[in-house]
Amino acid sequence: MSVRKAVYAGSFDPITNGHINVIERIAPLYDELVVIVAADSRKTYAFTSEERMSMTKAAVAHLPNVTIDVCVGRYVVKHADLIGAQVIIRGLRNFKDLEDEHALAEENRRICAHIETVWVPCLPDLMHLSSSMVKGHVGADPDWEEQVARSVPAPVVIKLKEKFILDKARKHWTSLISALGNPKGVEDIFKDLITRYGEPHRTYHNLEHIITMLDELEQFGDMLTHLEEAWAIWHHDAVCDPKAKDNEEQSDLISKNHARKLGLPDLFGELAGTFILATKHSALPLDDRAKIVVDLDMAILGKPEKEFDSYEARIRREYDCISQPDFYANRSRILQSFLDRPSIYSTELFRSKYESIARKNMERSIGQLQK
Description:
By secondary structure, this protein is an alpha/beta fold.
């Protein structure tokens, strides 16, 4: 008896719960279901073919007879014929889809008459889903991740967030470098920073933290008046070793080295260095511009309770090399040292915006740590 093989093709940019539902319903009906990630050079995708294949593979890993393939530079129906499939599966969301899919099925029949098309209607609660809709939510609201999580698997939410953060990082970096006169060699430095902030142990001091600081820096005025601050933000956590006590000093050295490579004035690197060293948070900064960088670094303390608690949990994971009793004692001491200051924030803007919430968050956190 011949193997009953079907293919289910799409861009899957990214794969959604609607796609997965079709796959789960169809897979038991065939000996093998091949999910094909289509790659058309005429189209622009948010994710590369490799990224789309990886996300799709993770999403259907629980189905033993489902495999993943990619189709590049040929009709999907020809690819189906090449791998020995007899059927192409197509999902239908509404009557509009039916019209379009009927025309596509006729075209496929003209290309490979022996390949049949089977249409699978979406379930009513999934009819609204599309990859475009999912991508439209990204960055649209502070709670966009929660909205997207209703429509795609968890690994896809992570990938969308990484893509969103990286795109924002590129925009911030381009703006800074443009203001610095577009010196040569910036791409290597950008890649170095992205690699550093992408280190696997970083669950808080990562690229998202940098972008959040850069986003909030805009509250203090035009980029042209805060070039050294922006440079310092990019570099202040370049080194993040949970066991080391000189991370800021090492980050300052990297900052100065990067500045020299771009031919920036020594004074630029020195000034940015004072801002980087101020993020040790050993004392309140005296320099007005250092106050801005330090307050930006501590803004998370004054965020809503849910966001603050997530931050605390990520800090714990980042320092999982430290025993629980030692971490709790050290963390309580650090938070208490902030509470003991006349004010947590040094700029009037952040005192009015975050001070009261930060104190409540830290008092609550210390109480939990000391239990």
